[in-house]
Amino acid sequence: MLGKKHKTLGEFIIENQSSFQYSSGELSRLINAIRLAAKVVNHEVNKAGLIDILGAAGDTNIQGEDQQKLDVLANDIFIQTLKNREIVCGIASEEEDDFISINSNDEKHQNKYVVLIDPLDGSSNIDVNVSVGTIFSIYRRITPAGTPVQLEDFLQPGNKQVAAGYIVYGTSTMLVYTTGDGVNGFTLNPALGTFYLSHPDMKFPDNGKIYSVNEGNYVHFLQGVKDYIKYCQEEKEDRPYTSRYIGSLVSDFHRNMIKGGIYMYPKSSVSESGKLRLLYECNPMAFIAEQANGKAIGGRTRILDIVPTELHQRVPFFVGSKNMVDKLQEFLDKYK
Ligand code: AHM
Ligand code: MG
């Protein structure tokens, strides 16, 4: 049974509140709201195969992709939870064309944080019972509290993130997050509806032997990426590496963080900026990676230093064990 040493996420949030530099309890309440929404989404994801909820909802999101019903549902659940509790002044979501302002022009509401979220990443995997995830990213607004939240509050470089995390709805459901002081993972006990600290102080090993990339696109990749993939496959030293690609960023990242590996979504001759979104996917994962001894680049630049120009901006993304990312960088640099 669960003894004293099994700390719950609730306990962890309270204990760590005072160590956070702007500690006013606001961020703790915000993480609590995400924890609650995660449980609700988890419940929906888990019963996805049972009820007639699958399939395209008929809508197309701003990226021109079919939205599935669970994307819409997860989006609504996170937005409603954050709205109802009035703990943020704005939300931007991968599923929304524009950002949402929450009473931010009301002087009574002095909330400082904005949340950016990919409510259900990898949702094309739901139909086939493969794990999906939620990714979130939190910033302090830069415009004054009590005035309408602005686009610039959302277009901050990733190095300004206050917190970021993901929920992986896998064989177990886990919530993994950082507030800039390391990364901790909590596993949901579905019988009790409680997250327990199961993975304290998560770290990418310096080296890894897994590479994750959609190799079907190989022909379209830049030469540096092609060469690195060939390097991974070479029979030399500790290679060839293992290829593992779920096609669900959160799950691929989670496995690589635990075992050591690199995830790549490069730009290609058919998609100039790659596929992944800087604000909803790359920045939060990059923040987590760096907090966990890993590294994240978008080619030549550190992901967290990119200054965003639009909400739905895409960037090439390479993230994982330090030495693997450095090795990839060497190959990319050959073709500067
Ligand atoms: P989504 O936000 O539309 O779900 O797309 C993001 C997902 C990632 O989770 C995954 O790593 C990638 O797209 C897979 O793309 P591809 O099928 O092109 O390999
Ligand atoms: Mg996504």
Automatic annotation (TrEMBL):
Pathway: Carbohydrate biosynthesis; Calvin cycle. It comes from the Bacteria. Its cofactor is Mg(2+). Mg(2+) 2 binds at D118, D121, E281. Keywords: Carbohydrate metabolism, Cytoplasm, Hydrolase, Magnesium, Metal-binding. GO terms for cellular component: cytosol. Binds 2 magnesium ions per subunit. InterPro entries: FBPase_C_dom, FBPase_class-1, FBPase_N, FBPtase, Fructose_bisphosphatase_AS. Gene3D superfamilies: 3.40.190.80, Fructose-1,6-Bisphosphatase, subunit A, domain 1 (3.30.540.10). One of its GO terms (molecular function) is magnesium ion binding. Belongs to the FBPase class 1 family. This is Fructose-1,6-bisphosphatase class 1. The lineage of its organism: Bacteria, Pseudomonadati, Bacteroidota, Flavobacteriia, Flavobacteriales.
